[in-house]
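Retro notes, item 3 of 5
We never archived the inputs for the 4'-deoxy-4'-aminopyridoxal-5'-phosphate complex last cycle. Fixing that now. Sequence and ligand:
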Amino acid sequence: MSTVSPEVFASDHVPWRYLFNRNGSNAKRAGNYIDASDAIAPTISDRVAGQTTRFEQLRANDCYFYDTPIESCDGAWVTVDGQRLLMLASYNYLGFISDVAVLASARRAIDQYGIGQHGSRLVSGTTSEHKALERELADFMQAEDAIVFNSGYVTNLATIAALVGKGDTVIGDEWNHACIVDGCQLSGADFQMFRHNDLRHLEQLLTKSRRGNTLVAVDAVYSMEGDIAPIPEIVALCKKYGALLMVDEAHSIGTIGKTGRGVLEHFELPADAIDIKMGTLSKSFGACGGFIASSSQIIDFLRHQARGYVFSVAMPVPQVVAVRTAISRLREEPQLAVGLIEISRKYRDQLRSNGFNIYGSGTQIVPIACESDEEAFAFTRRCRELGLYVIPIVYPAVPMNAPRIRTNLTTLHTPDDIRFAVELLVQAGRETGLIEPA
Ligand code: PMP
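Structure as it came back at the time:
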């Protein structure tokens, strides 16, 4: 175990408070995050200096594992500082980042269109490839129309801020991704959070909201927990109270449902159960960008009102074309999703039976709970020494009392890779006291 003094790891160390971004109007009731508005605001330079100190201390104690330069990639393996490591922190769920057909199509697109765009979509950035991708995404997501943005983060931010505003209510799960939270805050609507997957709490908030003026936004699969949201029940509550439902499918497309179509397929729900389906193009589709699939009316509204679309450059065509190829590859090989579901289930079973707490994970995202930030850093360090690329996730990405190592599986992981991963996780877990010795 590390010998670093506990205060270096104290999660309520002041600078961290200011990274906090979950201050919905009922945040203190909903989650165990600190509301930054409670603290006396330091000067900007004090805030910057405080954070620098924290990171300097972490670096000095060999506890800083972020922003690691990867030198090369080979399937599920990467090279870092000359050392080959098995990658367990990638969103390349279906392996399309290095798919031969995807790469070939992107190369052809570079030859035809060049590397960048000429402006935002409304000005000069739209190509026939963008239009084709939007038709294909609409079809894939069983929606009337779709719109693509240049990042998943911007998609949520711009969409929520365009749809709701002052006088409206936006309600989100307390564990929603930061870009949903940021969109809710940016919108100016009354922002309420419900306890994670707590339907009674959601209903309580809905009873106080106005029919027709409320948006509920949730993740389908939670990025730090790997659990699947109770979407059928959330759909029913939204219908009952006349709220619009937006679901972020960043981690569910390509990974759940028997052909990888995501949460509707997983729960066998009708196409129109979710009003606004959001997805990223940076995970199962192996590129960059985000999209909304919805009614033609909502998509047309976003095309002219979503500021991250109107005032930011278009997604580059090589990326657009890469995603088009990835979608057709997934249509040709729908069994990719089932394969990932199957290996993830075995991997979770093995971690659980070795004594790890993996929260409620039911997907390819498998967190390993740690008792303290210090334990998470020590475990990460040992995993990296042994040959695994993992990262510690601490506050404010997760609640203060719930640091963890998050591991992700992809279709590139072979059975041998998974055996190797489990063996080394168990070894590192025993050596650092995370699990009991054999
Ligand atoms: N939504 C969720 C649930 C995410 O996990 C992420 C990023 N990890 C995003 C949106 C943002 O997507 P992107 O990284 O493609 O901008």
